[in-house]
Amino acid sequence: MDAILQVDGLTKHYPDFMLDHVSFSIPKGAIMGLIGENGAGKSTTIKAILDLIRKEEGTVTFWGQELRSDAKQLKEEIGVVFDGVNFYETLTPEQIGKISNSAYTQWDPPVYQDYLKRFQLPARKEIKTFSKGMKMKLCIAIALSHHPKLLILDEATSGLDPVMRDDILEVFLDFVQDENHSILMSSHITTDLEKIADYITFIHHGKVLFCKPKDELRYQYGIIRCGSAAFDAIDKTEILACRKSDYQWDVLVADKEKAKRKYKNTVVDDASIDDILLLYVKGESVS
């Protein structure tokens, strides 16, 4: 299997929300960024993938196998970090290490100690005394210390200052240097994903709008900025999303070089992941 994680048609209904046939796959050695506005379905997708909520339709396979309640070895191959600590906050990192050593057959105490030192986490202080950033670093240390092959991260860099976020991103890049490792990383900090992701999956209102290589989005997508007259002349089938402000139109297109050649009386800018997300979420589709 080339895909570590394969998600096909994942569906879950709630009274006011639906996860609607979500599909994507993560190849070995790759980092997949999962983006979308708050409430788009990112965390619901991750919980359904991990079988923490019951899906109604679809299949999820890890290395070609479904995640069942008795699949202990398969679960050991997956490291998970949520936006919050799942341990009693009266525990210390040292105590959590002992608990984890009993829970995981692949637990590696020296690796865990190295991460505690690297992240400057006091081993004998209670978690409740930690800042949010320290708690996130502890969760990452735990996830990495049982030698997983897949990391699933839900807002794992949330609460970290820019310097520490950069350090953590380096840890993630080191992790996927082993081409048998992969990462699924949900984040609202799109600049982090621009630094390290290989692919971007964009979820909006419970649906996948696209799953594309990051470089295609960064280097091929563009934003045409123009007045109303120039906007009227744009081929509407080329518009992915657009938004009108007081003075101009911002128009997202999939081929910025083509747009530069075709619409010479406009400005065509590069598009960041943030730009793309905002135009899809706050803009409108006309094609």
Structure description:
There is one protein chain. The radius of gyration is 21 Å and the shape is elongated. The chain is 34% helix and 28% strand. The protein has 287 residues and is of the alpha/beta class. Helix 6 links the parallel strand 7 (150-154) and strand 8 (182-186).
Give the SSE layout.
Layout: E1 3-14, E2 17-27, E3 31-35, H1 42-49, E4 57-62, E5 65-66, H2 72-76, E6 78-81, H3 93-103, H4 109-118, H5 132-144, E7 150-154, H6 162-175, E8 182-186, H7 190-196, E9 199-204, E10 207-213, H8 214-220, E11 222-226, H9 228-233, E12 241-244, E13 249-253, H10 256-262, E14 267-270, H11 273-282
Parallel strand pairs: 3-8, 3-9, 6-7, 7-8
Antiparallel strand pairs: 1-2, 1-4, 4-5, 9-10, 11-13, 11-14, 12-13
Helix pairs in contact: 4-5
What features would you highlight for this structure?
elongated, 287 residues, six-stranded mixed sheet, alpha/beta, single chain, four-stranded antiparallel sheet
- State the share of residues found in helices, binned by percent: 25-40%
Order of helices and strands: EEEHEEHEHHHEHEHEEHEHEEHEH
- Low-pLDDT parts are none
Structural class estimated from helices and strands: alpha/beta
Residue-averaged pLDDT, rounded? 92
Produce a short descriptive summary.
With 287 residues, this protein is α/β, with parallel strands linked by helices. The chain has eleven helices and 14 strands. The two termini are 37 Å apart.
